[in-house]
Amino acid sequence: MGRVWIGVDAGKASHHAAAVDEDGELLWHRPVRNDEAGITDLVATAASVGPVTWAVDLISAETALLRGLLAAAGQTVIYVPGRTVKAMAAGFPGEAKTDARDALVIGHTARMRRDIAALPAPTELLATLALLLSHRADLIADWVRVINRLRRVLVAISPELERALNLTTIGALVVVSRFPTPEQIRRAGRATLVAALGRALVPAPGRIVDRVLAAADRQSVVLPGQGAAAVIAADLADHLLRVRRQIKDLDKAIAQAVAEHPQAEVLLSLPGIGTIAAAEFIVAVGDLSTFAGPDNLAAYAGLAPVAHDSGRRVGNLRRPTRYHRRLRYMFCMAALTAVRTDGPSKTYYQRKRREGRNHKQALIALARRRVNVLWALLRDNRTYSPTPPAIPMAVAA
Predict the structure, then answer these.
(1) How many of the other CB atoms lie within 10 Å of CB of 366?
(2) Which residues pair with 5 in a beta bridge?
(3) Residues 238, 245: Cα–Cα separation, whole Å
(4) b (16+ CB within 10 A) / e for 143-178
(5) Domain 4-122 in CATH: superfamily?
(6) Domains of the chain: which residue ranges?
(7) Comparing C-alpha atoms, which of 335, 326, 323, 327 is closest to residue 359?
(8) Neighbouring residues of 304: CB distance < 8 A, sequence distance ≥ 6
(9) What is the largest CA-CA distance in the chain?
(10) What pLDDT was estimated at residue 320?
């Protein structure tokens, strides 16, 4: 029997699997409980029909056990994003939305789309970094949400105080957690405020205190509900201080995990790439051998424009619709960081601006070029240098 493609519509409690052969015929479909016994039985069933390519529509925690057991069995797994599944579903008869139909569409997509790269086998490092990055993203989202909430509460206490405080800094959060109203700030006085910030190791506490005292002196009226607002503001500020500590501890853990990667030094040597960006790259790309060249990696990151022609309208380009969004974000933010300091990246960005590109276009062009640079560094396993390596001249025969 020829190759078989098995599409898996993933779920938390159970999955649904459907197998199709080279002619597109449905061989079988079945629900699978998301536990070791159920998945092991599914793998054994699949092994009896011939060489198999597996396709999943999720690469999150729901499929961790499935992908782990498939990797242990030496199976090939590809990822078919949900957006692609939805688009492909319109090409099959019927309008029903069931797990069985979704699994069949995933299987057919894997059979017809031979350009979808295989997922890297999950390793301890990849799994650790993926979990840490996911948790960090949740903490950042919580940080942003609570800061916005705190700003609204402070405006209800004193708009002057809200404008005077940069709530992303530890100094402002310490002030709000201890002295959330103008009256409390005036009553505490400069010495008490400076001492409180000093215990929190806030740099230059005097400047922050002077700004806060000036804002408190500009409002003498007590607004309705200020007592309740002060309690809420202090609680929110305490929460943000805890989240800030969690993010810092998490960043240390991510840095330690990245350091275990065999090419960590190469990744971190490229200007603009720090430990978080390196971790995002490692999780998104896995093994560089998955991609045939830098052009394939650029396409995967959404940095290779695709044609958008019709009739006599030719030469138009647009952003691709299928790409790894976190990887694109990582390359663009790394490029944005790199142009802030003198070097080849800034020079290239400025040249693109002189050619008439706007900021966004020049930044994307730089990000695309840096894909080539990073690819070459990883291929040759050498760290970045602003001076290109010397190419040895051919010896005359």
Answers:
(1) 27
(2) 20, 53
(3) 11
(4) beebbeebeebbebbbebbbebbebeebbbbbbbbb
(5) Ribonuclease H-like superfamily/Ribonuclease H (3.30.420.10)
(6) 4-122, 129-255, 264-380
(7) 335
(8) 295, 298, 320, 368
(9) 92
(10) 73
Nearest to 168 by CA among 192, 193, 150: 150
CA distances from 128 to 46, 50, 133, 255, 365 (A): 29, 33, 9, 12, 32
Q: Helix 82-89 vs helix 99-112: angle between axes, to the nearest 10 degrees?
A: 100
Only one residue has tokens 């079988």, namely: 28
Residue 315 has a pLDDT of 66
Q: Which residues contact 84 (CB under 8 A, 6 or more apart)?
A: 109, 113, 322
β-strand pairing of 4-9 with 52-56: parallel
- Beta partners for 29? 18
Closest to 4 measured CA to CA, from 20, 16, 24, 26: 20
360-368's contacts with Cβ under 8 Å and 24+ in sequence apart are 363/332, 363/335, 363/336, 363/339, 364/303, 364/332, 366/335, 366/338, 366/339, 367/303, 367/328, 367/331, 367/332, 367/334, 367/335, 368/298, 368/303, 368/304
CA distance 185 to 169: 18
d(CA 375, CA 267): 10
Reference 337, options 366, 305, 298; nearest CA is: 366
Q: What is the pLDDT of residue 396?
A: 45
| pLDDT beneath 50, residues of the chain | 395-397
User: What pLDDT, in 10s, does the model give residues 22-78?
Assistant: 988 999 999 999 999 999 999 998 888 778 999 998 888 888 899 889 988 888 898
Q: 3-class SS at 152?
A: helix
* Tokens 């597996």, located at residue: 54
251-290 pLDDT, tens digit each = 999 999 999 999 999 999 999 999 999 999 998 887 777 7
Instruction: Name the phi and psi angles at 16, rounded to 5.
Output: -130, 130
